[in-house]
Amino acid sequence: MDGQDTAGGALEPQQQAWRAAFERFAARHPERAAAADRFIEFVCRHADAAHRELAIGHLTGSAWLVSADGRRVLLTHHRKLGLWLQLGGHADGDADLARVALREAEEESGLTDLVVDAEIFDLDCHAIPARGAEPEHFHYDVRFVVRATGSERFTVGDESHALAWREIADVAADATMDASVRRMARTWLEANRSA
Q: Rounded to a whole number, what is the distance in angstroms from the first to the last CA of the chain?
């Protein structure tokens, strides 16, 4: 598929950038290659993948927001889903998903002095239930590490019931947590074991 979408047409620049990022992720995490392949297939079919108007699903950007010491992660008790999750949201047409993750982290936490890592930390495709006039659809969630470098005093926004700093080791061990959040906690702990 070098430079072409699955229908044989040329890929737009954002599709090429997304595909390259997903390929780098798969090279770093071969055990997650199938997830990366699913994302690659999706973005190669949909040049408008970053637009929420794409009814079957769309790209979203999320932040694995870690404390300065790397021991805690800021989670939100999501108002619509009723789960403790990472911060994040819709790309709203922004093809730079790291920037989306940083923007969402700032908006949802009120924190400043945040720094986003350039490379993808995790990928997760999940169904979003139908709500009102919006049908069930998929979020192709691209997750980045965002680091708190200043104050860790957050503000709870409209999209959350609550926010909380949680010990990452506790999140990894908590069987009641969302499976993808636990996966990110284990990935973080493994990557930072020798650091």
A: 38
Please name the fold of domain 56-191: Nucleoside Triphosphate Pyrophosphohydrolase (3.90.79)
**Nearest alpha carbon to residue 126 among 188, 179, 80, 171:** 179
Residues 6+ apart with CB under 8 A from 134: none
- With residues binned 3-state (H G I as helix, E B as strand, rest as coil), the percentages for the chain, rounded to 5, are 35, 30, 40
What angle, 0 to 180 degrees and rounded to 10, lies between the N-to-C axes of helices 13-28 and 33-45? 180
Question: 15: which 2 tokens?
Answer: 């599709």
* Domains of the chain by residue range: 1-47, 56-191
**Cβ partners under 8 Å of residue 111, min gap 6:** 65, 74, 105, 148, 150, 151, 152, 153, 154
pLDDT per position in the chain (195 positions), as tens?
444 454 557 999 999 999 999 999 999 999 999 999 999 999 999 999 999 999 999 999 999 999 999 999 999 997 777 789 999 999 999 999 999 999 999 999 999 999 999 999 999 999 998 989 889 999 999 999 999 999 999 998 777 779 999 999 999 999 999 999 999 999 999 999 865
